Amino acid sequence: MTQKPTMFGLQYRLSQEAVPSFYPFLGKSRVVAVGLDDLQILLTEGDPYLTKLSSDFQDRIRSLEPGPCIFVYKDASVPSGLGELVLSGNRNQSSVRVQMKDNEKKLLYQLFVGESVTDAMDVVEEEKVTGEIDEKKDVEGKKDVEEKKED
After folding, report:
1. Is residue 82's pLDDT more than 60?
2. Count of domains forming the chain
3. pLDDT tens digits, residue range 125-141?
């Protein structure tokens, strides 16, 4: 029985649950180091374009062919092994994705970034829908709206 080739010749996705089993045996070619700023973007946006990420990350990820990969964030301030976050991911043609449920991403964001993710994700979703941040949520925008009501 022959298997049908898929886009980019890869027929699998690496789920987050499988990462602990595969990570020790996966070659370094599919493992990408991630900085804190890039981690924040990966956890708050669904499929961020490569151009939204740091140039260092772009250089590392562009060397990979599209397909499954593992993102590794290491916190230098935490003792060895305890500050390492290993995430299942996918490199697409022009974007990347963390293969996790949104609620799991929110929890990791809170743990590693230390702030509420709901506000950050609401702003990202609003920018996608409207193309810009709503004036009502902007402090200066509130003043403009109030002045217009008075006139």
Report:
1. yes
2. 1
3. 565 566 554 444 444 44
